[in-house]
Amino acid sequence: MHTTTLLTLLPLLAFAVPTPSTATQDTSQITAQQIQQIAPRSVNCDKPPAKGECATADQAAPNIAKSFENYGVTSKAEQAAVIALMAFESEEFRFSRNKVPGVEGQGTRNMQSPSYNAKYASSIPAISDKVSAANGEAGQILDILLADEEYDFGSGAWFLTTQCEQSVRETLQSGSEEGWQGYISGCVGTEANEGRRRYWESAVKALGVSS
Length: 211
Description:
- The chain has about 210 residues and is an all-alpha fold.
- The chain has a single domain, classed as Orthogonal Bundle (Lysozyme).
- The protein is built from ten helices and no strands.
- α3 packs across α7 (about 150-165).
- It starts with about 30 loop residues before the first helix and ends with a helix.
- Keywords: Signal.
């Protein structure tokens, strides 16, 4: 598992927080085949490295697609960047909790820090009672999010749409490498290294993004 503690370099930003829709969503725009192209190991969960954490492309695709519907992420370039980040951080959806250095409460497929998971969980009306009962306990909040695949896979779209400045999103929407680097370094707050770039390139190809 990677050693980067994700999403710790930025101050909390005051953005309006969209809430997931309860309406039935069309999940046809992201397919399991596209997810497998980006994250080949997601074809199955044979011999998973962590009990109960691995998810296949068949599980990931509809939940990621629903998150894009819920949070209004219609740009293919933005979708590719979010999926690539999740694939890298979760080691191709094989983990949902941080293992190294083992930060309590860090997780979801976006491998968010506990502070962002608290904000994310608080933005979802359907789990507000459970979040309140957790009383800020990071591990419990993560457990609540991971109990529902929709919330587990929804963190990437939530983060993009609530924590990234509009200028970052506009540049990212161009489909350029510069836009992707700005998203990783200027919003996510981590290094746009070769490992992340490879997943982004695969996602751009799988989703047919043009710059």
